[in-house]
């Protein structure tokens, strides 16, 4: 098996494992928001993983994570979950970009 195939397999596995971990932490974050910070959860558009989820609420949640809104909530658990979700999301985006670059590099090399 070629090194490039092994590296690509590793990147895909990391993306899959990271995505599952991200979804678990995001689920916990959303549950914490809903239970302990109902007003904030409402202001974010009642975000959820699947049920009654809208693009607008997801965009608000992503903006809140990008701005580190969790840091000002005065809730250590929410801060921990928010920082974890943000870090995992950034890592997943970076890994996905590397996967795309590897695909392009492999495609160019085949020609």
How would you summarize what this structure contains?
Helix content is 78%, strand content 0%. It has 111 residues and is mainly alpha-helical.
Tally the beta strands. Answer: 0
Helix and strand content put the structural class at mainly alpha
Which of globular, elongated, flat, extended, rod-shaped describes the shape? elongated
Task: Spell the H/E element sequence.
Answer: HHHH
Overall average residue pLDDT: 93
Estimated radius of gyration: 17 Å
Describe the biggest sheet?
none
Distance between the termini: 20 Å
Helix count, per DSSP? 4
* Percent in helix: over 70%
Beta fraction: under 5%
Unreliable runs, pLDDT <50, ≥5 residues? none
Present the secondary structure layout:
Layout: H1 3-36, H2 38-43, H3 55-66, H4 76-110
Features:
0% strand, mainly alpha, 111 residues, single chain
Folded structure, characterized:
The structure is a single chain. 78% of the residues lie in helices and 0% in strands. It has helices spanning 3-36, 38-43, 55-66, 76-110.
């Amino acid at each position: 098996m070629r090194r490039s195939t092994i590296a690509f397999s590793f990147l895909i596995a990391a993306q899959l494992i990271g995505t599952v971990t991200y979804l678990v932490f995001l689920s916990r974050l959303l549950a914490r928001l809903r239970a302990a910070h109902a007003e904030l959860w409402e202001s974010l558009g009642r975000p959820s993983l699947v049920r009654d989820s809208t693009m607008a609420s997801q965009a608000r949640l992503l903006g809140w994570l990008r701005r580190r809104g969790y840091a000002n909530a005065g809730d250590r658990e929410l801060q921990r979950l928010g920082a974890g979700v943000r870090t995992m999301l950034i890592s997943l985006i970076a890994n996905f970009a590397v996967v795309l670059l590897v695909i392009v590099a492999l495609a160019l090399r085949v020609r």
